[in-house]
Amino acid sequence: MPQQSLEPNTRHIAAIDLGSNSFHMVVAKVVGNDLQLISRHKQRVRLAAGLDKEMNLTHSAIERGLACLAMFAERLQGFDANNVRIAATHTLRQANNAHLFIQRALEVMPYPIEVIPGEEEARLIYLGVAHTQAESNSKLVIDIGGGSTEMIIGQGFDAEWVNSKQMGCVSYTERFFANGKLSKKAFSRAILAAEQKLESIAAHYRETGWEMALGSSGTIKAIREVLIGQGYADGLITQKRLYKLIDTLCQFDTIETIQLPGLTDERKPVFAAGVAILTAIVDDLAIETLHFSDGALREGLLYEMEARFARTDIRMRTTENLAYKHAVDIRHATRVKDLASALFDKVARDCHLTNKRELRAMLEWASLLHEVGLSISLRGYHRHSAYILQHTNMPGFNSEQQLLLAWLARFQRKALKLNELPSFSLYKPEALHCLIKLLRLAIVLNGQRGAEPLADMHLTITKSGWQLSASRRDWLEHNKLLHADLLEERERWAHAGWALSIDPVTS
User: Fold this and answer.
1) Residues 6+ apart with CB under 8 A from 78
2) Stretch(es) of the chain classified as CATH 1.10.3210.10
3) Regarding the domain delimited by 119-303, which CATH topology (the fold level of the hierarchy) does it fall under?
4) d(CA 204, CA 18)
5) Could you read off the pLDDT of 398-440 as tens digits, one per residue?
6) Can you list the alpha helix ranges (DSSP code H) found in 177-267?
7) Of 174, 407, 468, 491, which one's alpha carbon is 20 to 30 angstroms from that of 244?
8) CATH number at 10-116
9) How far apart, in whole angstroms, are the C-alpha atoms of residue 390 and residue 373?
10) Who contacts 479 (Cβ-Cβ below 8 Å, separation ≥6)?
């Protein structure tokens, strides 16, 4: 049952961040135009440490993750699916068997898990910081996780430069501090490796500049707490303080023997690697002072979930920008979108679709972007469109949403090789097939690319298949080319095992 709030005019929402080192959950309530945090929950899972040499999560790592999600699920009993968002980051992006973890996770927590690209993670981190740190307009935001590090420059609530680098406190601990020994040489090697990762972006970031530099999440929070314990009451992070902290750490023989005020036992195993990564960033980006922000990825998820906090729908902006970049014929794409949406409304119930709002939106975005590949070549443009949509940074879309757009574009025309469709955890095959059919019909029916409106189209689903007709009985008589295209489309459906009837059929 959906959660029933005891408070009038409130909505309870929750966001979960499945990080490489820890899982985090934050619960909030929306009252009017205000979002109030109610509770935070954190569990160290060490998911990244459970990746084997073949990049598969070990059984023990999966069990740790599931045990944490089972605890979180207790707090979320009664929450509607629309009020919970779960984002998985670097480790589940890398794990070959991530789909197995996600499938098992659904058994303990009945909410979909989104694996988000690194750039999308960076954008959401920035959003979380921007909403909780309003002192400056222009910001540099840094977030060092277990497997990746995100660096973002933005203005207000908009992330303008986003980067996600594969360097994290867990992975760097395994590379440079695997024996547990602390030495100047180990720190130098780790710092140099991080600087090599930063080489391609450092100059541009320095040239762009920012008013305030902010760090978020556990690694930077731990460094701040230790610096306070070292007598720096303001908790500010500087280059000089970081190098002094490295000197202090090197006074201990091993990671296990570190004893510093403010450093928890939980954070200790990966602390040295985090210090090395942050030192490289502060050096290369010439950061004078780094402040700490409580906002992070999970807060970004929360604020984006609540539409009243969104200035515009980020996914619509992304779609419009991509269409403009690739010189899409917007008038034609909009006609395809409008027809696809109208047809969706006619068959959504008979297709037994769940989450109709999300699927309808995905169909509309796919309609608007189905011809981006024409900017490369007319020949095989559906394949070009698929490639662009799969490999372009698309703010607002998680990895599966982006993959869905790509495959809708791939199957918009020509043969239907359904055996090539990848498996999805967020979308059922029946839903994918429905969206493919709708997009193809909308494109065929707009094949003449004219501004003249089509006859009022009717689409129904019967036991024998899909049936397409129009309000005018003579619609095919006056559209010979369209009729031929529909007959050809019917043949392609038949080869895929689908049935399409066109009423009336005159041949």
Assistant:
1) 1, 2, 3, 4
2) 314-454
3) Nucleotidyltransferase; domain 5 (3.30.420)
4) 30
5) 889 999 999 999 999 999 999 999 988 888 899 999 999 999 9
6) 184-198, 202-208, 217-229, 239-249
7) 174
8) 3.30.420.40
9) 12
10) 448
